[in-house]
Write a structure and sequence with these properties.
five-stranded parallel beta sheet; 175 residues; alpha/beta
Amino acid sequence: MRRERIGRNVLVVSCHPQPTSFTAASLERVLTGLAASGRNVRLHDLYAEAWETAGDISTHSTELAWCDTLVLVYPTWWSGQPGMLADWIVRCWPAAIRRRHITHVVAVTSHGSPKYVNALEGEVGKHLLERWVRWRCARSARVEWIALYDIDTAGDERRRRFLDQVEQRFASRPR
């Protein structure tokens, strides 16, 4: 699969309740890579912002209008995005809104199950991004899926390799 170019203005949205989680480590590597690339980055941590009770839709919508690349960092739970992230997508991106300036959506996620189980379940999370979010972006927008499957049994070395790949993916310079 061809890697799409990450734009210059990147909005990163993270969703995990534990600041010491593997998702937090993935987020750190995304941000490290983006910093090395010289891109403009804005970050929202939905749990840290208490999105469900105090989320500022206006601010998030403004930042969606600013970015050309959206990066979502989250764990896959029950075959899809955490409820808080799904809520963010629905509230900040109502069906009538198109964000035609967004050309790239990247998901960085982990799955407790192996890839074949996710495929048998219908890849719910991936399809939400490809069928709901991508459809509301630029016509040529692409969804990039960066996933660590079977994290429950993945050893330290496999996890480290994944984190290294994540950082390297985001460290490339914009053209």
